[in-house]
Amino acid sequence: MAASAEDRRIVIENCAIATVDAGDTEYASGHVVVAGNRIESLGAGRAPEGLENVVRRIDATGHLVTPGLVNTHHHFYQWITRGLATDHNLFNWLVALYPTWARIDEPMVSAAAQGSLAMMARGGVTTAMDHHYVFPEGSGDLSGAVIRAAREVGVRFTLARGSMDRSEKDGGLPPDFAVETLEGALAATEATVDEHHDPSFGAMTQVAVAPCSPFSVSTELMRQGAELARRKGVRLHTHGSETVEEEQFCKELFGMGPTEYFESTGWLGEDVWMAHCVHMNDSDIAAFARTKTGVAHCPSSNARLAAGIARVPDMLAAGVPVGLGVDGTASNESGELHTELRNALLINRLGAHREAALNARQALRLGTYGGAQVLGRAAEIGSLEPGKLADLVLWKLDTLAHASIADPVTALVFGAAAPVTLSLVNGEPVVENSRLLHVDEDAIARATREEAQRLARITAQA
């Protein structure tokens, strides 16, 4: 009798293992046994003898196994506007690109989501998220397009259903035709939660409530958005403290800094995570630590937009949950998370803590367990432990790029992007030998190029 899917085992042996568990347990040469969609066992040496229903046995000599990477902040639609406004700060960059973004439609978003997800997945991301907040009238089912793309690629996914209702006429940055009404945004967000959010253990799709930012959202949308999220039992996400201009904007408009403003609107708490948090003083960090508010650290984007260096070592020391984010690929053209492991480490060493800021294992933790914490899924993913979901990556480290680096975690974080020999999500292969299994990368490349060209033509004719 054939084994059921729950009983089928994959055995990975002869590999280095970085579990990223609470004790940072590592094995120089060990094994991982996957049964169905869970990690059944792992440890030093070869797998136990006599395992039944082994459908695949992998000799992983020369490889490192880690938890799958977890991306905590992104804007997929920006994949089709890469390489534009390359010498702008955040506010000028937004003003330059909003007129283009306000003309996206469902086919564009579908192609862009496929491109963004494919790039991340082939680079070791097993859990992705998208903060989508641009919903032009008549543009189609944008949330559905993004969710379908994640399902096709095969990754675990959180859609942060964003919104904007503060346009230029109200003192915001987006064009007037690019925003929703307060009532429309709330209703559409609630409908998205009702249709797509899965609260169960092992869920492949979850939804968060995510008004865009203080400078594109009314105070009432912030307050009612928080109330909606807590009534529905979902998480909350927004941008916070990204630039000095944002801090000035908040003080001028609200009479307080960003963190005080967020607290006044119900936006601090263990069910909240903020993108960026670059300009945080000691009291801001203390408030995040006290409330267990999470942070999505996006070092490449912060450097691209000259936003500054987030105080990640101080946040971690205070007990703030911190994960890593790619951010939208209009401010991080590479679009993959391994770059953020390396840049988080290197850029933070330019700050006050210098060489003591972060080490390789702390950077790996940010990109795995830290991300799982921020998304509220640390009991399911983010570390390799028996009973957790089988989301893991097998990195090839015996090629020219890494062969002379003795420590595998150092090789992964400090070195060039390592090839992914195997990526499992829910125990199912998504990437093998650096190629995606469920989608055609070449077809995605053609589609994203065509949709980028179509968007450019529409914008030029407007």
Major β-sheet, in short? 9 strands, mixed
Strand content: 15-25%
User: How far apart, in Å, are the first and last alpha carbons?
Assistant: 64 Å
Low-confidence stretches: none
* Total number of helices: 14
Q: What percentage of residues falls in helices of 4 or more residues?
A: 25-40%
Topology:
Blueprint (H helix, E strand, L loop, with lengths): L8 E10 L7 E10 L2 E7 L9 E6 L3 E5 L1 E2 L19 H12 L4 H17 L2 E8 L9 H12 L2 E8 L18 H15 L8 E7 L7 H14 L3 E5 L3 H11 L3 H7 L7 E5 L5 H10 L2 E4 L1 H6 L7 H7 L3 E3 L13 H11 L11 H15 L17 E5 L11 H7 L5 E6 L2 E5 L2 E2 L4 H21 L1
Parallel strand pairs: 1-4, 1-5, 6-7, 7-8, 8-9, 10-11, 11-12, 12-13
Antiparallel strand pairs: 1-2, 2-3, 5-14, 14-15, 15-16, 16-17
Helix pairs in contact: 2-3, 2-14, 4-5, 11-12, 12-13
Can you tell me about this structure?
The structure is a single chain. The protein is an alpha/beta fold and 462 residues long. It is 36% helix and 21% strand. The protein has 14 helices and 17 strands. The strands form three sheets. Strands 1, 2, 3, 4, 5, 14, 15, 16 and 17 form a nine-stranded mixed beta sheet that branches. Strands 6-7-8-9 form a four-stranded parallel beta sheet. Strands 10-11-12-13 form a four-stranded parallel beta sheet. Helix 2 runs parallel beside helix 3, helix 4 (182-196) packs parallel to helix 5 and helix 11 (338-348) crosses helix 12 (360-374). The radius of gyration is 21 Å and the shape is globular. It starts with 8 loop residues before the first strand and ends with a helix.
